[in-house]
Every structure is written in C-alpha cells, then in structure tokens.
Amino acid sequence: MSAAGGQEAAVVTGIGVIAPNGTGTGAYWRAVLAGQPGIAPIRRFDASSYPVRLAGEVTGFAPEQHVPGRLIAQTDRMTHFALAATDWALADAGAADLAGFDDFDVSAITANSSGGFEYGQRELANLWTKGSRTVSAYQSIAWFYAASTGQISIRHGLRGPCGVVATEQASGIDATAQARRVVRSGTRLVVTGGTDASLCPWGFITQLPTGRLSQSDDPARAYLPFDAAAGGFIPGEGGAMFVVESETSALARGVETIYGEIAGYGATFDPPPGSARPAGLRRAIDIALDDARVAARDVDVVFADAMGVPELDAAEARTLTEVFGPRAVPVAVPKTMTGRLYAGGASLDIATALLSLRDGVIPPAVNITSPVAGYELDLILDSPRPEPLRTALVVSRGYGGFNAALVLRRARP
Amino acid sequence: MTRRTVITGIGTVAPGEPGTKAFWDMITRGQTATRTISFFDPAQFRSQMAAECDFDPLTAGLTPQEARRMDRAVQLAVVAAREAIADSGLVYEDGDPHRTGVSIGSACGCTMGLEQEYRVVSNGGRDWVVDASYAVPHLYGYHVPSTLTCEVAWAAGAEGPAALISTGCTSGIDAIGHARQVLQEGGADVIIAGASDAPISPISVACFDAIKATSPMNDDPEHASRPFDISRQGFVLGEGAAVLVLEELEHARRRGAHVYAEIAGYGARANATHMTGLKPDGREMSVAIDTAMAEARIGPDSVGYINAHGSGTKQNDVHETNAFKRSLGQHAYRIPVSSIKSMVGHSLGAIGAIEVAACALAIETSVVPPTANLHDGDPQCDLDYVPLEAREQRVDSALCVGSGFGGFQSAMLLTRTGARSS
Fold this sequence. Notes:
B: 422 residues; alpha/beta; Peroxisomal Thiolase, Chain A, domain 1; 10-stranded mixed beta sheet; 3-stranded mixed beta sheet
C-alpha cells in the first residue's frame, strides 16, 4: 500500500485488549463474535443507592498477574490496564523487547478522559479525613492524565515524542491520529490507544448529571443505541492499546501481521450549544474520507459512536445516511456488549474494526431488537456478518462537541 | 511550501493582576507574585506558599452563569482566550469557524472544582460510597479536562480540530506544538492555543508536599522561588493561563495582522527514566532542543534568549543547564537564560504557554526578563541567568523549554518573523 501524498504510511502491527467482555485480544474477539456482553450490576462498590446501577466492569483481570507489584501500588487501575495491554500489543507486534529500535525512535501517545479517579478518590479521602501527611507520595503521578503515557515510556524505554490527548470519548481516535503524525515525522514505532477506569463511586457519580446514562436494571435492555427503546448508555471500563508503526519499518523487520493502515482522519468541533449551525460530525467524516482518498461507496463498514440517547442517535443516523445513503453501508455497534469506555471507547472500536478487517466479519450489536426504522441504518444485529472488508470507518463523539473519524484500510494480503 | 505558524494575539492571566500587559510589566520589573496561600488555611502543609492570580471572574468579564459553571482553570483560559482574540484583531463574524481550531494544554484540568465537590458528596471525605444527590449539574464538566477546550472553542467560535493536550508540566508547550503541527498540515488556518491550570487546592499542595517538590521557605514567600540559586529548595506552586492566536503566516499577512513571532521549531522527547526524577546529563531535553533548532534551521550561534524551565528544584536546574550545554556548546555561556518561575511560580501545565508568551514578548519588546531571587549561584549552574534585573537586548530568536512529571522534555523555538529565510 502506498501512503497518500507520498507520506510514510502508518500501519497497526499489534493489538492488546482489556474489555468488560474479554481480557486479551483473543478472548475479547471470541466474546464479541459470540455476542457475549459484559454489562452487569456494579460489583466494585455498592451502587444500590444510585439511579444508575449497571456498568461494563472488567472482571477477568488480575493486575498482579500482569503488572509488577511496585507499579500496582504506584498507579491507578487505568494504568494497570494500559501497562498490560501495551505488553500484549508489543508482543503481538513481535516487538516485546523492541530489539533493533533506537530508544528515540519509539514513543507512547495515549488517549485519556478523566485520569486515575479511583486512586484520586482514595487520596482525597485520606487528605480530608486523616490530614495532608497521609496523602500518598504517588498521588501526583498516579491520578494525572499523563500517568499511563509516562509509565509506558519508562517501562519500555520509549524516548521519542510522547503525548496525551484528552478529548473524552473522541480521544482514542485523536491519539491514534497523533501517533500517525509522529510516525510520519520519522518516529518508527508508537504505542497508542487508551484505557479508562473511572468506576469508583466518585468517578461514577460525576457522570450522572449529564443525564445520558441509562437507569435500567436489565443488562440486556439498558444500552440500546438506535433502538426505539434507547434510554441512555451504560459506562464501562477498559480499552485497547495498539502498536502503530511506519510501514517501511514494519516490512523491514518482517512483521507477521499488518492489521491495517491508518488511512484517514478528520476532527471537528460542534457549534456552541443553542446555535442553529449544523453539528460537525458530517465534516469530520468527509475530511477523513478525503484524507484517505476514498469515496463513501468504498467504505465497507462503519463503527458507529452510538450514544444510546435518542436525539444523539438520530443525529448520527442522519449524518451516516447523508454520507452513505440509506441502508447503504453496514453499521457495527459492538459497544452494546461493553458500554461506552470513554478514553478506551474509540480505542476499543479501532481494535475491533482492525480485527473485523483481518477476519472479514462484522461483529453484532446484541440487544438491539427494535431499530428505529426511520434511521435507515443497516445495523448488524444478532449475529456476525461475514463479508470481505477492505475499508472501515470509525466515528466517535466526545462530550461537549468533539467529533472524530478514522479510516482504516486492510493491508494487502 | 511549508505552511508557517505565527503568533498574532496574546492573552495572559498570570499571578498578580490579569492581562498580558500587567504580566509583562511585573516580570520585567523583577517583581514576584509568590505569597502565603490565601485560598485556604495552609497551616497543615509543608509548603504554604503559592503564586496566586488576583483574578475575579466577574470583573474579568464572565457572566455569573459562566462563573458558576466553569472551574477556575476554565475561567482563566476563557478570559485569556478572549484577550488573545481581541489582541489579534480577528473578528468573530469574519472568521471561518471550520478553519479555526483549538488546542489547550492542562496538567490537572478542573482539580479545584473536583476537590470542592468531592468534599460535599463524600460528607467531608467520610463516605466512600458518595452521595449522588449532591452532584451539581456541571460536575461532569469538571470530571473531564476537555471542558477547557470546549469553553475556549465556544468563546472563539471555533469549529475546526479541537484538542486537549495533557502531558503534565510540558502541556503548554506541547499544546502549542500540536497546534503548529495541525496548521502545518493544513487542518486549520487559525488555532487558539495555550494552556491553563489552577491547582492551588489542598490536594495538589499535599501531593507536592509528599514528594518534597515544593519549597518549604514559608517565612519568606516573596523570595521562596529561587531557580539556579544555591539555596533553592523546590518550586512554588502557581496558577494561570496563557492563550495565543496562532495563524498560518500567509493568512495573517493577508489580513494585515500584527505578528509577534513565528513558532519556528518544536521538539518533544521523554527520558523514560523516572516519573519525577531527572538524570543530571540532560540528554533527552538536549535532543528535544536539537530537534526544535533543526526545524527552525537555526544554529546555536543564533539563539538569542533561553526561557528556562527553571523550576528551582535541586535536580531540575542542573539537568537543564547541562542540556543547554549539550545542545549549544560554548554558546550556552553567551546566551541569556532566565526563569520567570522565580516570579510567577510553577503553574504546572499552564506555565509552558505563559513562558512561550514571554518569549514572544521578549522578541517584541527587546527586553529579557530576569531571574528573581538569584543572589548566590549554584556552581553547577554556571550560565548567564540574568539575575534580578531585566535586560534591554534585541532578541531575534528565543528558546523555551519545559520538563515535567512522566519524564517529558519539550523545546520550542520562536523567531522574529523575517529573521529566518523560508
């Protein structure tokens, strides 16, 4: 594949997933194709007094099996996820030890949304009940938004241009695009993606005032994007990390798998609330398609943002039918199985899209039973749909008005 | 041809009085804004000082509703953005919203608002399962730092690419560097870029106490931030925001805008060594500086001023002194180097943007701001740190560096427009 505009192509050569319905890429992908959801009543704390009581919790992950003990104590759960998923992504890319890479030729750029909330809640409680001297010496480096990038950089000796992009649910796409930018500027390999873990009581209740969370107690009926019964979304934790590499570098070291190329990217911001001007999602998609030099008809599958809030679902559906035509492209919503993962959300969608491209199969959106007919979307509902796939579009909206779109193109076999 | 990035507007809310002019007047007088913390009773803390902004949201032009909904960091950012846009002469109605982007840096987002609301819902920290019924309507806006970008975008009428960059204490430089990359690629013609942090709250103070990063010289707060001085004992926490209007050069020329300086080069590296510690050799910062100089096509002989990270910790000041020597060789001894943190403290992610603004103003006004409180230099820090008094001196290019938790090292080169061939 040749890069657009004569620029170096950025390809994904490794994936690591930690999701509510599967820890490890293989387990996650099997669960997705089998339609096994990970949404359940919250177990990490007693949520019975809250109006929202379900979440997509990661249950199959024991940090002590994947993260050195010292680091477990010094970092938040979001970073435990990030460190483990990075190890898996690098191993998957055949670059576990980064042999042959100069340390300035490798970097980390993570997506973040709200920092290490659980660590932060614990230390806030210490401060306000026991005094300032009981606050952990690691609080300053555990909760902040750059924690995972810093720890990944140190653990793997990544000295190239590192970064952190925090645009809520859009950050997974924005960080991946930044990784592509850095690769195009000459860095050979970038660890990117994002993980989220804000399911402590304090991190959980801060999400409630948006009014976008579902208050249903039925895990199978709580998060139904594009469905006539849509009533909000379920938050989740986890995400995905991947290895983005210059194609030249990947080919030169003879990698086993190139999942696909990061072929196009667009980002826009919505007009202020109350403005009559149109929202920016359409422009983000158009810019991404142009950037990838593909036409709408060339897109084989769209991974939707799927907020699960009726007016936002309607807006996204309208945008997709404007770009692609009514029912003209398959729309995948695997996040009905995980909930929305914020910094991990678009990151996981990118990973899922790459696995779909690899295997030629579109994952199902379980639980949606009554799609709104007027949306005119070709939703893949109960079971996976095998289909030869070459180009996927992932779209995401971050709270407040961020729109991001990413075009992924399958590597030639 | 490469698209070039220039600064056409500057807005600043720094410790002391708000506004770019007040900020520049204060630091070029060598006056410090560090004082005993007034926001809360600091008696239980090891470090009880901060550089606080004398900022009132309503006086600064925010409505009561904006003041209520915005965390202090957001207030500072929006006020700085409005000043920058007014300064640039860009008229909201004439701009192309789709070609206008936003890139804001912040190390700790809405931390003051979060701590305040946490105390309420947790009943003073006593309840782990906090009480959701006390959650205020704008609480999610505190939960995510991206609110800073949203509010600046709304204030600017920007609908182009928008980002929140959060790389700890290099966030400000990195947000401006990110904006420059987007402008270069052609993703926008104008980007409102800068950074804001308002971390003067008990949890932040406790955090830095716990690792002894901040100065305990509580009986002399005005002179507690002492970069490069042998008696330095850590940084003094600060707050503030600086926002720049960045514009593609031809776009600025077409509308006859005043150009302060060009962002001619940017480099970022990580030391991959320790989340908070630094090796003395300055290797990674030096590589970042080399990258910025190469992008700007400027050699060590042409660097006219260095705005140092100069936090005043024992490790930092030696680390960066050695980085300057690695990159600039003998020229390092000739170039004036100063740390404005001696006067405005260390406002974490925001300070990088404030320091880039200071570099642009040094080029604009031909004045190099001093390093205050530097009486007795550390023998390991043997460069010209412009002690105590500003210097009138023509500056055609200024280097701004930052270093932060996570191991991040960033460098940016500003040049007088026209001082460099394209």
